[in-house]
User: Which sequence fits this backbone?
C-alpha cells in the first residue's frame, strides 16, 4: 500500500526526468520510487508524469505506478553579440546590421533600442537588444543583451571656388563656400586695406591683393575643416572717379577763424582738422591755432556721418605764428600734432605733441610733448610732417642765420601712443630740411630742399615687426626732381604708394600761364627703382590756379587739387582733376570735380587740402570738408 506518493523537484526545459529528484514517498512494504520513463524530456510548465513504485520484496508484492506533478521551468536562451564594442562608425553613418547583429542559441527575433538607420551622436553609445523566442512556452521571453558602439566625428571639408578679379568701386559681394557638414563657413581677409569681410559679405577697400580664408570650426559631431584659401585681386577702377560720402560744412558753430580745413587727417572713426586763428599778427599770439576732432560710428573707412567731438588748443603758449596742427596725423586712439614755430631758449625749435584717448568714446588729452634740438643746430621742428601706417616723419630745417643743416626724424608709434625714434637724417646741404613727405605701408619718401637749387627726393624702405610697428628705415633710392619756376617742386604736395610716386610743382608755368602748375608721376620698375613716366599739365582753363598744390594717389588714380581755379566771376572755389595711371605710368584725365555754385563758397578754396587713407580722400575748403 502507498500511503504517500513522492513530490518531484523542478527541472528546466531540456532536462530529462532523471534530473528531477523524487522525495517524500512512503510505501508499505518498503521500496523505491522512480520515473517510469526517466529519459522523457517534458515541455515547460506543470506536467503530470508517471512514477513507478517497486517494492523491495518483489517476490511477494507487485510494482504500482501513478502520476505526480512536475514543474518544468523555461530555459534561458544563450545570447551573444560580437564584436564588442560593435564595429565603429563615423558620423553621420547610420546603424546597420553590421552593428545590430546579436545572435541566440534558439530561434527567435531581436529588437533594439536604436533601430536600423538611426544616426547616433559622436562618442560611445550603448546599444540594448531584447530577444523574443519563437517558442515562448519553453524559453524565457524578454532577455536583453548590451553592447557599445563608438561614433567618430564626421569628416568636414570646405568647397570654395575661385574669386574673380574685382575693381575699386565695385559693390560688396557675398562669398559662397560650402562645408560638407552643412555648418556655417566663416571668412577672414589677410589684407584689410584691400578688402574686409563681415559674415560672408566682402567689401572692397582698395587696390591690391588679399587672401580670403574660409574656415569651419566643426561642432560636437563634425571635425574642424581644413581651411581653404582663395586669392582676391582688386584692380583700379576702369572709370576712376569720386563719390561724395559725407560733408562737414560749415565747421563747428561759433568759431571765428579762417582756413577751417587747412590740414586734415582721418582714420576709420576719427577725423581731425587744423584751423588757423583769425588774428595772424602780434607777438606773442593769443591763439596758435586749433585742432577740431570729429568722430563717426560708421564701420566703413572714412565714411560719415561725422559729429563734432572736441577742440584741442596748443598746450604751451610760446608761439609767434599760428602753426599748431600744421603737422597732423591720427591713428587708432592717438593724434600727432606739430607746431613749427614754438619759441624756446632763443630759438624757433618747434614742438611735437601726442594726444591720447583711452577708447573711441573718450576725449583726447595730452600724452607727450617733445622737441629735437641737436647741439650743432636749431631750427623749425615739425614744419611739415606726416603720420600714417604707424610711422611719423618730422622735418627740421634752419634759416641761413644758423648752421646750414636740415633733415628729418622717423618715429614709430604704437596704438598706445608710445613714440620711438628709429631713424634720423641730417644734411648740411639741405638747410630747408624735409619740405614734404609721403608714407605707404612699406615705402616712404621725403623731399629734401635748400635755399639754393639743391633738391632731392629720397625713397626709403620701411621694415616692420609682426605687430606692424615700424622698426627700421633703409635708403633705397635718391631721385633728382624736376623743379618749378621758383624751385618749389614738392614743397606743397607729394604722395606715394608701393608702386607710384606723385610730386606737385604748382609754381611751374605752362603755356605762358604763370604758376599754372604741373605734377610729375614716377613709377617703380622691375628693378625696384622709381623713374619719371609722366608729367601732367593742367587744362588751359586752370590759368594760375596752382595746379598740383595738393594731390593724392588712390591706388592707380591720381587726384590733383587746383585750389586757385576761378569757377565763375564771383567764386574762386577751386577744382579737383582725376587721372588714371596706366601700368606703364602714363596718365590720362578722366574727370573733373568741382563744388556746385553756391554763395556759401564765395570766399572758400576747394581743394586747399587733401588727405588720403586707403581709397577715401578728404578734401578741405576754408569752410568745410568733403
Assistant:
Amino acid at each position: 500500500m502507498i500511503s504517500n506518493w513522492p513530490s518531484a523537484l523542478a527541472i528546466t526545459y531540456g532536462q530529462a526526468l532523471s534530473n528531477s529528484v523524487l522525495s517524500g514517498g512512503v510505501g508499505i512494504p518498503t521500496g523505491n520510487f522512480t520515473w517510469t520513463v526517466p529519459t522523457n524530456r517534458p515541455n515547460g510548465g506543470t506536467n503530470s508524469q508517471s512514477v513507478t513504485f517497486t517494492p523491495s520484496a518483489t517476490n511477494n508484492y507487485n510494482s504500482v505506478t501513478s502520476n505526480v506533478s512536475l514543474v518544468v521551468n523555461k530555459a534561458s536562451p544563450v545570447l551573444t553579440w560580437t564584436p564588442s564594442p560593435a564595429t565603429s562608425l563615423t558620423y553621420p553613418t547610420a546603424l546597420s546590421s553590421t552593428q545590430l547583429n546579436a545572435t541566440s542559441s534558439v530561434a527567435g527575433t531581436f529588437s533594439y533600442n536604436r533601430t536600423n538607420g538611426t544616426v547616433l551622436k559622436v562618442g560611445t553609445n550603448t546599444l540594448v537588444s531584447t530577444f523574443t523566442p519563437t517558442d515562448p512556452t519553453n524559453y524565457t521571453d524578454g532577455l536583453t543583451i548590451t553592447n557599445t558602439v563608438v561614433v567618430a566625428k564626421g569628416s568636414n571639408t570646405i568647397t570654395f571656388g575661385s574669386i574673380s578679379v574685382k575693381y575699386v568701386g565695385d559693390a560688396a559681394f557675398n562669398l559662397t563656400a560650402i562645408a560638407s557638414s552643412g555648418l556655417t563657413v566663416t571668412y577672414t581677409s589677410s589684407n584689410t586695406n584691400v578688402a574686409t569681410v563681415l559674415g560672408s559679405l566682402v567689401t572692397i577697400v582698395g587696390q591690391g591683393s588679399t587672401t580670403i580664408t574660409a574656415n569651419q570650426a566643426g561642432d560636437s559631431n563634425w571635425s574642424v575643416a581644413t581651411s581653404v584659401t582663395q586669392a582676391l585681386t582688386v584692380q583700379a577702377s576702369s572709370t576712376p572717379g569720386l563719390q561724395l560720402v559725407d560733408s562737414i560744412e560749415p565747421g563747428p558753430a561759433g568759431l571765428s577763424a579762417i582756413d577751417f580745413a587747412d590740414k586734415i587727417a582721418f582714420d576709420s572713426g576719427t577725423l581731425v582738422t587744423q584751423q588757423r586763428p583769425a588774428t595772424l599778427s602780434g607777438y606773442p599770439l593769443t591763439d596758435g591755432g586749433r585742432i577740431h576732432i570729429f568722430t563717426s560710428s560708421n564701420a566703413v573707412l572714412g565714411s560719415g556721418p561725422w559729429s563734432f567731438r572736441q577742440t584741442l588748443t596748443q598746450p604751451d603758449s610760446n608761439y609767434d605764428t599760428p602753426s599748431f596742427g600744421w603737422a597732423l596725423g591720427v591713428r587708432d586712439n592717438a593724434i600727432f600734432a606739430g607746431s613749427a614755430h614754438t619759441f624756446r631758449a632763443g630759438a624757433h625749435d618747434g614742438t611735437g605733441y601726442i594726444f591720447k584717448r583711452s577708447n573711441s568714446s573718450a576725449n583726447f588729452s595730452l600724452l607727450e610733448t617733445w622737441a629735437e634740438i641737436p647741439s650743432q643746430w636749431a631750427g623749425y621742428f615739425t614744419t611739415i610732417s606726416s603720420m600714417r601706417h604707424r610711422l611719423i616723419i618730422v622735418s627740421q630745417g634752419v634759416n641761413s642765420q644758423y648752421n646750414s643743416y636740415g633733415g628729418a626724424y622717423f618715429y614709430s608709434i604704437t596704438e598706445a601712443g608710445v613714440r620711438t625714434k628709429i631713424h634720423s637724417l641730417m644734411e648740411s646741404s639741405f638747410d630747408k630740411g624735409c619740405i614734404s613727405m609721403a608714407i605707404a605701408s612699406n615705402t616712404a619718401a621725403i623731399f629734401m630742399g635748400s635755399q639754393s637749387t639743391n633738391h632731392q627726393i629720397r625713397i626709403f624702405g620701411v621694415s616692420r615687426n609682426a605687430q606692424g610697428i615700424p622698426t627700421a628705415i633703409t635708403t633705397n633710392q635718391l631721385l633728382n626732381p624736376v623743379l618749378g619756376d621758383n624751385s618749389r617742386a614738392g614743397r606743397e604736395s607729394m604722395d606715394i604708394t608701393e608702386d607710384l610716386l606723385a610730386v606737385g610743382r604748382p609754381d611751374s608755368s605752362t603755356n605762358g600761364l604763370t604758376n599754372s602748375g604741373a605734377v610729375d608721376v614716377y613709377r617703380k620698375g622691375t628693378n625696384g627703382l622709381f623713374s619719371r613716366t609722366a608729367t601732367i599739365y593742367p587744362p588751359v582753363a586752370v590759368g594760375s590756379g596752382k595746379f598740383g598744390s595738393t594731390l593724392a594717389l588712390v591706388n592707380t588714380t591720381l587726384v590733383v587739387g587746383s585750389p586757385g581755379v576761378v569757377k565763375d566771376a564771383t567764386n574762386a572755389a577751386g577744382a579737383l582733376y582725376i587721372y588714371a595711371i596706366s601700368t606703364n605710368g602714363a596718365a590720362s584725365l578722366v574727370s573733373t570735380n568741382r563744388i556746385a555754385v553756391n554763395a556759401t563758397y564765395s570766399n572758400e578754396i576747394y581743394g586747399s587740402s587733401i588727405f588720403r587713407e586707403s581709397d577715401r580722400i578728404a578734401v578741405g575748403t576754408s569752410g568745410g570738408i568733403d
Q: What stands out?
A: Residues 341-617 form a domain with the Methylamine Dehydrogenase; Chain H fold (CATH 2.130.10). Confidence is low (pLDDT under 50) at residues 375-380, 399-403, 595-604. Residues 306 and 553 are 23 Å apart (CA to CA). The chain has five domains: 2-73, 79-152, 158-235, 246-340, 341-617.
